[in-house]
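Researcher: Here's a chain I'd like modeled. Treat it as a single chain, no partners, no ligands.
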Amino acid sequence: MFKEIGNKPLRYFIIAIYFLIILFCAIEINFLYLFGYSPTYRDIKTPNMRIASELYTADGKLIGRYYKENRTPIDFKQITQGTINALVATEDARFYNHYGVDIYSVFSSAASTFTGDKRGGSTITQQLAKNLYRTRNNKQQGFIKHIPLARTLVYKLKEWTTALKLEHQYSKNEILTMYFNTVTFGSNTYGLKTAAKKYFNKEPEKLDIQHSAMLVGMLKATTTYNPDNNPEKTLERRNVVLSQMEKYNYISKQEFERYKSRPLGLTKGEVVEDNRGDSYLRSAVSRYLEDWCESNGYDLYESGLKIYTTIDSKLQQYAEEAMKEQMKILQQRLNNAWGDQNPWRDSNGDEIKDFPEKAAQRLPVYSYLKKKYNNNQDSINYYLNKPKKMKIFSWNGDKEVEYSTIDSIKYYAKILNTGMMTMDPMNGHIKVWVGGVDFDHFNFDHVNQAKRQAGSTFKPFAYLAALESGMSPCDKFVDKPVKIEYDENNTTLYWEPKNADYNFTGREMTLRHAMGRSVNSVTAQITQQVGWDNVVKYAHECGIESKLKSVPSVSLGSNDVSVYEMVKAYGTFLNNGKKTEPILVYKITDNEGHVLEEFKAKQKQVISEEIAWLMLYMFRGGMDEPGGTSQALWEWDLWKKGNQIGGKTGTSSDYVDGWYMGITKDLVTGIWVGCDERSVHFRSSGTGEGSHTALPIFGRFMEKVYHDPSTGYTYGPFPKPTVDITREYNCQTVIIPSDTLTVDTTMTDSLMVPEESEVEEPADSAFQNKPYQKPSDNKPSTPTNPTQPQIKTEPQTNREKRQEARRQRREEQNN
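Model: Modeled as a single isolated chain. C-alpha cells:
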C-alpha cells in the first residue's frame, strides 16, 4: 500500500503516522503487558486527588487528618489571576490554545535538546497527567521499562494520551484547579493552599503577585528553589517568573521593576502537616474504618473523606484532664511505694532478677542483633547496655537522657498506664476514648487492644445469672467459708475462695448487699449454684467477646477482657436489656460534603427489661449498701438533685490491675489502670485497689461534666422501670444501732489470686460497726422493718472525711 505513494518523504511520514497510531493503541491496551497500565476514561472522570481525610468530633471540631501527601484542596475561585498568569507565563504560554499537547513546544524542545540545551516541552495538562496518575511509577510500567530510549518515548506518549483525555473531559479552569491541588512544593507540602499557608501564612486568594511568582518558581526544582534552604536562588528564580509575566504582558515594565525589587517576604504559618493530630482516637478510627474503606473502594489517606466521630469534645477534654490529674498522683505513689527497690516481682513477691534481659529478648531489635552478631551474647549485651541519647516520657514533660536499651526497659516498666471509654448505650455512641497516658510514647491502645484481668468488675455477670435463674436482689446467702469441687482435665480440684481480710462475718446478706460490698464468699456460692458456664454465657450475651475460661473463679474476674467490651456489656443494663454495638463514627462524607455513609448501632434484646432494671438497682448498692465499694465517690461533688450512680470496682491479684465501671442515668464509663508490665504492681490495698486508682478518675471526670451545663449531662436518678417489677427488691440491709455511726469512704475491693484459678475479693474488716449513711440529697428507702432505727443523713464526721480527702488530693496534685 505504501509503495504506491511516489513521494518518499510523504510515504515515510505516513508510515510514521501509522506506526504511532499502532503504538498508541498498543500502549492503551498494554499489549502483551509491555507498556504497563494507562489511565482509562473512568480514571479521568474520577481522578484521585490524594486529598487528606479529616477527622471531626461530633460537635464539629477538627481533631486529626490522615494523609500520605499533605494537601488541602481549593476551588478555582480561590486562585488569584496573578497566580494563574505566573503559571501560564512560565510553564505553558500557549495553554489556552492547545488541546493538551503543544506540538510547537514539542519540536522546539526536541531541537533544543539536540543542540545541548535541554528544555521541557510538557504542557500544564501533561504535568497534571504525570502528577495525578503517576504515569512514571513502577506499578504503571511494563517490560519496556528495561529499554532506556523506548521507555522515555512510552512515558511521553502516555502523558500525551492522558493529557488529551483530560482536555476532552475538563475545562481549562478545571485543569488549572486540579493542577494547583496536586502539584508538590517540596518538604511534604502539596497543593497551593498548603504552600501559601506554609510560606506566607495566607489563604491562596490573598497572595500578592510576587508571592505567586515565588511559589510558581519553586515548581522547577523544589529543593534548589526552596526559600528555607536557598533564599538567594529562590529570589533569583522568582524574578525569572516575573520577567516571563512581563514578556507575555501579564504585568507592565513598571510592575516588573517594582515586584522584583521586593524581598521574598516570608511569613511562616502553622501548617497541619506538622501535626496530623496523631492520637489514640485517630488510630482507633483508622482501625475502625479499615474494612469499610476496603469494601467501598476508598483510601483513608488519599480519598479526602470527612469523618465525623461520635466523640464529644468537651467530655473527651474532661476525661483527659481527669486522667492526667489522677495518673500523675498514682505514678508518684507507685514510685514512693517501691523507693529504690525494683518493682518487678514474681507470684511470691520476690524480685525477678533477669527481668530486663528477658524483656529485651521480646523486642524486635533483638532478632536483628542475634543475626548481626551471629548469636554472640557478649556483643548483644554490649549493644543493649550501651547508653545513647533519647527522649523519655515523664509527667513533668519529655526528658532528654542517655539511657541504654536496658535502662529504657527498666524505666518504662514502672510507668502506669490507663484506658478509658465512655458510651451512651441508648444509641451506641462512644463519647470518650482515652487509649493511654501519652500516644507519642505508648502507641498501644488500652481501650480495645489491651486485655487485662477484670477483677471484681466481672462479678455482676454472676448476679445476672442469679436473677435469670429466678432469684431476687433480696435473696440471702451467708458470708462463710466455701469449698467448691470441680473437675479439670479429669482431675478433681477444690477451690476455697477467701475474703481479702481472710475473715468471714457469718452473717446473712442479700444479693444486693453482697454485690455492693463485693463479698467473695457469697459470689462464689452464687456461681456454684447457677453454674459457672451460665456466668460465661450471660457475659457473652451482654457483650463480652473475649474467650472466657469457664472455671469456678470466673465470676471474680480471672479472665482477661478489654475496657471496650466491658463498657459494651455494662451498657446492656442501662439500655433496658438491649446489647448495643458501640460505634465510633456516625457519618462519612466526601470532600464536598456529600454523605457517603451514616452509621447506626446494632441492638439486640438479650435480657428482659425487668432483669436489666433490677441489675441497675443492684449496681446502686455500691453506694447505697453499708460498706459499698463505690462510696469513695463521696469525695467528689456528685450527689445533688437526687443523683444516682451505680458502679463496680475491681482489682486483680497483687494489685496489678485497677478497674472502675461507672453507670449514670445517661452514660457508662469503664476505666483500667495498671502497668503494661504485669509483674509491676502496687504493694498495698490502700494504694493499688480499683477504688484508689480507677475510681478517682471517674469521680473527677463526672464532677467536671456535671459542673459544665453546656455538656447537656445533668444530675438525676436512674430511669424508672418501664415494666412491672415482679420480684422483691426494696430490701434494706439491717443496720446495727451504734453510738459511733460512721461511713467508710475508702472501702477495699481487691481481687486476690493465690493460684491460677483461685480468685478472691476483700470484704470490709469493720463491716459490723460501720453502717451506711445516705447522702443528704437522697431520701432513704422505706425499711422493710418498721422498727429499724433511722439514721441521720450524712453526719458531720462524713462531711469532714470528704473535706479532708479533697484537701489531701489537692495537695497531691500541687506537689
